[in-house]
Amino acid sequence: MNSFSDTPSIRKLRVYSLDPSMAIQLDNFEISTSELSIRWEELEAGPVGEYLQVIDIDPASRRLYSPVDLNSRSSLANNGHTPSLSNPQFHQQMVYAVAMKTIENFERILGRRMLWRERYIDEEGGYIRETEKRFVPQLRIYPHAIRQDNAYYSPAKVALLFGYFNAQTNDPREELPGGLVFTCLSYDIIAHETTHAILDGINRRLLDSVSNPDMLAFHEALSDIVAIFQHFSIPHLLNDQIQKTRGNLQKNNLLAQLAAQFARSTGRGSALRNALGQFDEFGNRQAPNPKELGRTTEPHARGAILVAAVFDAFIRIFENRVRDLRRLATNGTGILPDGDIHPDLTNRFAEEATHAAERVLRICIRAIDYLPPLDITFGDYLRALITADSDLYPNDAAKYRIAFIEAFRARGIFPHDVNNLGEESLHWVRFKERNWDPQTLNRFLPPRNLMRSMAGLYQAEGGMSELADHLVPKEDEEEPDVSPSDRTKTSSPNNSRSQEVANEIFLMINPYEGKRDEKDADRAADKLLQAIWTGVGSEARMSGRDIREAIFVNERVFKKFLHQWLRHRFLTLKLAENMELNNLVHEIAGTFGIDIRRYLKDRFDITQVKIPELFNKQNKKPPIEVFSLRPTTRVHQDGRTQTELLVILTQSIRLPLLDTYGVQMDYNHYDRDEPEKLTFRHRGGCSLILNPDQGVIEYSIVKNILSERRIQNQMAFYRKQIEIHGYQAIVRFGLSKRTQKQQRQSEALSFVHSHAEQYEAY
Q1: What is the pLDDT of residues 684-743, one digit of tens each?
Q2: Which range has highest mean pLDDT (75-84, 112-121, 255-264, 619-628)?
Q3: How confident is the model at residue 173 (pLDDT cuts 50, 70, 90)?
Q4: Residue 632 and residue 687 in contact, taking contact as beta carbons nearer than 8 Å
Q5: What share of the chain in percent tops pLDDT 90?
Q6: β-strand partners of 690
Q7: 459 and 356 in one domain?
Q8: What is the pLDDT of residues 614-648, one digit of tens each?
Q9: Is 401 in the same domain as 454?
């Protein structure tokens, strides 16, 4: 008997290498199509799989196209449909294949399965209270959603919407005037929009809580970076461009260009964006201007500066890797003779480019877990890049990190909280280097065995579905904060044993119940562990639920427990004899980014705590939110695998939006009887990277909620946005009570695309 599974490991599907325009160019015809190897999964017609659901409705022409069946004998024998402009089934195949390849890259690099944005708000703007309805199993993809020159990711719908349009060009040498152009047939656009969705699933605050010019620009930049560096995984495209540039990737080439057909069809030049930056009239690459960042605000254009910095770092790394090959091929002169380079040299250059591109993409994606949870800047990203890579490769023999620092510095990208641009200064400060008493620190963390279980059981199937419903009462929309009157509420009262166990855990750690004993939290942790490992709460196993829904459920259990754990710890906090209350509040805010005054009010006179004036006026003390808890896995150079826990804590508070004179702003919209008083949501918090085996915090990457500088910078950003976009900015950022619901339904990325100063779409 054959002991091997008959199920294939991969599915091969044909796609356009870049876009359909290459198929009618003699020079590029041979590289116009490619085959992508996608991880095998059982598919329904659509295709519909574990991660994606392709729905091909064309509202403009009122048509519903037949879904493609990639399991048909013909499809399996021929690696899918032949690339075609006119076949909707190929369009469906193309978006599925490229989106899945992008998802696989993120999962391989981050070492965990991707989840889409949790749905708190339905498509009508209503709040979803049922836990099970918040899980989004599949990202929906609409290949022919809109008849316009646009494509975007919709957080409200958790969907990708691709447009199609008639080419606007009058030059048939570029595109057929009036010919149809489909954005769903551009490899770059699909990868770009899928990355938006993945990044939003990792941290929705990057779109929900835009507070500075870099945030949307970062979303656009990372999406471009992923699309560009996936070019280097297409062998024949890479070899062709190496041959044509004679190994000099600083020359203008297809690998560095994004959405060429889209750009030509809309009169935007030869490419929508070019990672090599600008070229002069003679085709020479222009040197970067470090002042450009300071005068660029439009998200695509600002993001392009970050993309150029990353690609420049790649060029430096690639040139360093092939320097010896150039010497060997030129007898030491470094100058290749005229004519085509030898095929063997082309292959070696391509091999080195692939290795360098893979390393750069890995650095860029891994850095996501080393970012602060909100209010991120390009400087934060540089620090995250350096820290993430240095943790993985302590010995940077090839000087990759120096290449990044040099490329970022050339474009004026650097953090404002470091003394110099040395690698040690840019590396995030390790938590153990902070001036904290280890005993005080350990009190904030759950026991080591529970942390190890959180990391190990994250992807376990079943076991905690009932506990997820019973463990903690319902959360409110923004932060999980439970009032005493709500503490006995549960969502599924039918499972008596699960409810009994959950109540026992909750009552042990509930800070509202009488005397608070520090050991109660430890007892609750033991009880939770016992419940997890003995399967209590799993009487109704999760039959029919896939592993990603189990991940969603397990994360909810751990987040809820950790939320109560931290609340209990802060409520039982004892002041050290040499630490005043004011110092304690600010020390914790500086270390974790959060304001703990609400947990001290019953025991201490918190009026002595000096905090920013706006907080005093509001007199509000925000609750803590355990926003995210998930593992991140890295494989070291020596093959060692290490799993860490990433925990994100956040808080938010609404503050008045002041003008430059300190007066609260209002906006008199034409259809309102009275001016609207403007407020804004200010957030703080931290990204904690925990070592579950040792039970210690490795990093606390902080955005302090009490920072006066952050508050003033955020207000200045909103004032500028109102100056540019008027009432649309008030809606986009929810700057008044009336517009907060509209903000939930607004399409952040569609807004960016249609209000760009230089690019009107994508």
Answers
A1: 999 999 888 888 889 999 999 999 999 999 999 999 999 988 888 898 898 988 787 777
A2: 75-84
A3: low
A4: no
A5: 47
A6: 645, 697
A7: no
A8: 887 777 788 889 999 988 877 766 667 788 889 99
A9: no
At 515 the pLDDT is 52
Beta-sheet pairing, 139-146 with 159-166: parallel
Whole-angstrom distance, CA of residue 138 vs CA of residue 70: 18
Per-position DSSP letters for 113-148, written without gaps between them? ---PPP--B-TTSPBP--GGGT----EEEEEEEESS
Question: Per the structure block, which two tokens stand in for 737?
Answer: 């009570």
pLDDT over 80 at 268, yes or no: no
Q: What is the maximal distance between C-alpha atoms in the chain?
A: 85
Range of the domain at 480: 438-745
Rounded-to-integer distance, Cα 322 and Cα 328, Å: 10
For the cut 80, the answer to whether the pLDDT of residue 533 exceeds it is no
For 225, the token pair is 């970076």
279 and 162 share one domain:
no
Supply 508's token pair.
Answer: 């042990």
In a domain, 492, yes or no: yes
Dihedral over Cα of 570, 571, 576, 581: its sign: positive
Cis peptide before 47 (omega within 30 of 0): yes
Domain membership flag for residue 223: no
CA distance 192 to 537: 41
Q: pLDDT-based confidence at 541, cuts 50/70/90?
A: very low
* Cα separation, 111 vs 439, whole angstroms: 32
CA–CA separation, 18 vs 1, rounded Å? 44
Secondary structure of the chain: what % helix, strand, coil (to 5)? Answer: 45, 15, 40
**Confidence bin at 492 (pLDDT 50/70/90):** very low
Residues 173 and 275 in one domain: no
Q: How confident is the model at residue 508 (pLDDT cuts 50, 70, 90)?
A: low
pLDDT at residue number 311: 96
Q: Considering 365, 396, 428, which residue would you say is the last residue of a domain?
A: 428
d(CA 464, CA 369): 26
520-532 core/surface letters (b: 16 or more CB in 10 A; e: else): bbbebbebbbebb
The values of phi and psi at residue 664, to 5°, are -60, 130
Q: Which two tokens mark 491?
A: 């969502």
Query: Which is nearest to 406 in space by CA: 280, 276, 275, 314?
Result: 314
* 359 and 317 Cβ atoms separated by less than 8 Å: yes
Q: Is 450 found in the same domain as 396?
A: no
**In this structure, are residues 653 and 618 in contact, taking their beta carbons and an 8 Å threshold?**
yes
Three-state DSSP class for 314? helix
Same domain for 451 and 418:
no
User: Is residue 209 one of the residues assigned to a domain?
Assistant: no
Element (H, E) at 689: strand 679-691
Query: In whole angstroms, what is the distance from residue 199 CA to residue 116 CA?
Result: 9
My answer on whether 447 and 408 are in the same domain is: no
pLDDT for 470 beyond 70:
no
Q: How many domains does the chain have?
A: 3
751 in any annotated domain: no
Residue 639's region, left for phi above 0, alpha for psi from -120 to 50, else beta, is left
Residues 182 and 280 both lie in one domain:
no
- Of 228, 206, 225, 227, nearest in space to 377 by CA: 206
Please report, for the domain that includes residue 128, its CATH number.
3.10.170
Rounded to whole angstroms, the Cα distance separating 234 from 32 reads: 11
Angle at 379 between CA 377 and CA 381, to 5 degrees: 75
State CA 325 to chain mean position distance: 37
Other beta carbons less than 10 A from residue 576's beta carbon:
12
Q: Give pLDDT, residue 263.
A: 83
